[in-house]
Amino acid sequence: MTSSLTLGAIEKILTSAPDAPPMDPRPTLQVFDLRELEFERTDASGRFRLIASDGAHATQGLFAQGLNAKCAAGEIVKYSILRVRDYVLQDVNGKRCVSMNKHT
């Protein structure tokens, strides 16, 4: 993907109301860091945490189930560029977190 990152998109996402609709146009972000979460339960696995960057700001996030499978398969890796089609903003332990549901 040759698209440039959407500068300032993360700040707009994090300062938006929790029930606000996703940004349009869809932001292009870079996966700055990607790690599989470890669980104590043996039946819970395959969740990935990421640090996403828009070139100016960064935030923590999680991938939805379908995107977790792409991470496990190596289709989404550290430094991948993603155009985020759908996300949900959540408050987790007093911090805002982006859960990415779809990308192109």
What features would you describe in this structure?
By secondary structure, the protein is mainly beta. It has a single domain, classed as OB fold (Dihydrolipoamide Acetyltransferase, E2P) (Beta Barrel), CATH 2.40.50. It has helices at residues 9-15, 65-72; strands at residues 28-36, 48-53, 58-63, 81-92, 95-103. It is globular and about 35 Å long.
Summed up:
The chain is 14% helix and 40% strand.
Essential attributes:
single chain; 104 residues; mainly beta; OB fold (Dihydrolipoamide Acetyltransferase, E2P); 5-stranded mixed beta barrel; 2 helices
* CATH hierarchy: architecture: Beta Barrel
Instruction: Give the CATH superfamily.
Output: Nucleic acid-binding proteins
Number of domains: 1
- Tell me the major beta sheet: 5 strands, mixed, barrel
CATH class designation? Mainly Beta
The shape is globular
Over all CA atoms, what is the radius of gyration?
A: 13 Å
Q: What is the number of E strands?
A: 5
Question: What is the CATH T-level topology?
Answer: OB fold (Dihydrolipoamide Acetyltransferase, E2P)
Q: Which consecutive residue ranges, at least 5 long each, have pLDDT under 50?
A: none
How much beta, percentage-wise?
35-45%
Which structural class best describes the helix and strand composition? Answer: mainly beta
Q: Tally the helices.
A: 2
Query: What is the residue-mean pLDDT, rounded to a whole number?
Result: 84
The topology string of helices and strands comes to HEEEHEE
Largest beta sheet: strand ordering: 1-2-3-5-4
Taking the alpha carbons of the first and last residues, their distance comes to: 10 Å
DSSP helix fraction: 10-25%
